[in-house]
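Aim 2 progress update. The chain analyzed this quarter is reproduced below.
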Amino acid sequence: MTVVSGQWSQVSKGVFFLALCFALCVICFSAEAQQPEKITRIGYLSPSAELSRLDGFRGALRDLGYVEGKNIVIEYRSAEGKFDRLPDLAAELVRMKVDVIVATGSPGTEAARQASRTIPIVMNLVGDPVPRFVASLAKPGGNITGLTQLAPQLSGKRLELLKEAFPKIARVAVIDDAALTAEQLSGNSRETQATAEVLGIQLQSFEVKGPNPDLDGVFKAATRQRADALVMMPGPSLIQHKKRIVGLATKSRLPAIYATSEFVEVGGLMSYATDYVDLYRRAAVYVDKIIKGRKPYDLPVEQPTKFEFVINLKTAKQIGLAIQPNVLARADRVIR
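Predicted structure tokens:
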């Protein structure tokens, strides 16, 4: 009986030991499973307030499986049209040790570039990034990659659409944003002038400067020079004053075409531009790739593939304009 009892004692100890090991394994597995995901900090640097675009960026991140507060945090910084604030805002994001910076436009991208040559930067809405930000579109070669908006190539198309919509126009006021680089302004001007010569249109050039531009003076000058219509070039300063610009164009009863649909959504007449919502969704894809280990110098810069022609019929009626039916039929979106 003593031997049998000893054998059962050894068996019991073995069973207890196995049960204990199993319990420890379950506890360890449970602890590992409950460990929080690594939170990636994304810096978002913008020259102006653009919440609608930020919503598109956030939505694309959600579609890719990212949840704010769970596996990502977005540190949003806007200069609100005061470009001299951008360097400090970029430096602040660097001090916060963000994992990647999304920078809007050339001013935002330049500020991010000056603040860090190591943190990955995803640029967006940049006209021509070569060679200022990247060595080439195919091989960026540094810590910056992202998307270009091909702004100069669209300038002539806007003038063409304006002429098609209103065949009688002969003098067109062109408003530029002084915040753009000389290369960008020159590119826009070349494209617009070339198209104007083909269409027999006389251009009148105006430039908007500073955070509080004299927009009233610009529109009064355009009226004095008997402008028949208006082309608004792309630019972060102009976006900042879109409601005021649209109001002045309506008051002047000038048919106008803009470089972004945001103007049309607040009452502007027409726009032809890169689909900015698509660009911001694509920017989220770049961020996802970088989070998963890809390097900016291995990610080619993308050019836009989606463009949008938007017409606001309510504004046309308010001004008393009739848009040519063939032009209206070509619109991707009509606001009625």
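Residues 40-150+276-298 form a domain with the Rossmann fold fold (CATH 3.40.50.2300). Residues 2-34 form the longest helix (33 residues). These observations will guide the mutagenesis experiments scheduled for the next reporting period.
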